[in-house]
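Long-time lurker, first post. I've been practising inverse folding by hand and with some scripts of my own, and I keep getting stuck on stretches where the structure tokens seem ambiguous. Below is the full token string for one chain I'm working on. Before anyone asks, I'm not after the true native sequence, just a reasonable design that respects the backbone. If someone could post their per-position residues I'd love to compare against what I wrote down in my notebook.
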């Protein structure tokens, strides 16, 4: 029984020694104190004068060692294995990695699509206001205008060519509306066969088409004329005749 007890103690001692050796061999190291623009020389034998057999980058990690260490002068050298190449490095430039405290890399998670950020749109520029035209500015002695309209229902538009329309609808004066469009078709004798005029002041709009015809009764003056007109006055359709009038 005593013999068996001694054998057991010896076996435990050998197993503990083997465990320590395995722990030493399992240790991993990383580089320290090496500038980012430099690398650590891996030498064939311990000592700074021996041949260089490789280089370890300044941020090298997971460096294996078999635990062998040799003192050369005032420096200690440790044998390592870096990417399949064995050699010796100055122990001053390596340290054991703290595996237990090393942060674990989280598994990559699929990122949800970010919602599109609405881009604020610039407010549209306000529409330019039409120029203000007064009756005094339009009334020029000797100038020719067109008086268009009808008695039933009553409406009248004074056409100042190239300038504006003076509009009265059902006895209510809509004001002087600056021209926004004007087009005229003439025949070879320079007679206006078709004239289109449009005007607006932002509140009231007028669209008129004047045609040359054989005869049209101008009820506002009880005269026969040669111009018939169709007008859209602020959305209300009107018909009548036009006559040429010279301002006095």
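-- Answer (accepted) --
I ran through it position by position. Result:
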């Amino acid at each position: 029984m005593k013999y068996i007890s001694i054998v057991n103690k010896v076996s435990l001692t050998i197993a503990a020694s083997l465990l320590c050796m395995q722990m030493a061999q399992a240790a991993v190291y990383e580089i320290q104190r090496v500038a980012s623009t430099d690398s650590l020389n891996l030498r064939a034998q311990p000592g700074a004068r021996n041949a260089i057999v490789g280089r370890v980058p300044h941020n090298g990690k997971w460096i294996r060692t078999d635990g062998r260490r040799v003192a050369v002068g005032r420096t200690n050298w440790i044998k390592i294995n870096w990417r399949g190449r064995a050699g010796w490095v100055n122990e001053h430039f390596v340290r054991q990695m703290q595996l237990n405290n090393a942060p674990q890399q989280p598994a990559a998670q699929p990122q949800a699509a970010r919602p599109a950020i609405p881009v604020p749109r610039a407010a549209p520029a306000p529409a330019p206001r039409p120029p203000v035209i007064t009756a005094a500015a339009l009334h020029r002695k000797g100038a020719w205008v067109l008086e268009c309209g009808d008695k039933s229902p009553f409406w009248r538009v004074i056409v100042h060519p190239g300038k504006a329309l003076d509009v009265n609808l059902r006895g209510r004066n809509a004001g002087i509306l600056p021209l926004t469009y004007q087009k005229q078709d003439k025949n070879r004798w320079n007679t206006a066969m078709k004239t289109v005029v449009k005007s607006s002041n932002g509140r009231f709009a007028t669209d008129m088409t004047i045609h040359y015809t054989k005869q049209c009764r101008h009820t506002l003056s009880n005269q026969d004329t040669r111009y018939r007109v169709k007008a859209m006055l602020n959305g209300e359709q009107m018909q009548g005749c036009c006559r040429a009038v010279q301002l006095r």
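A couple of notes from the structure itself: DSSP finds two helices and 15 strands in the chain. Residues 135-246 form one domain. Happy to go over any region you disagree with.
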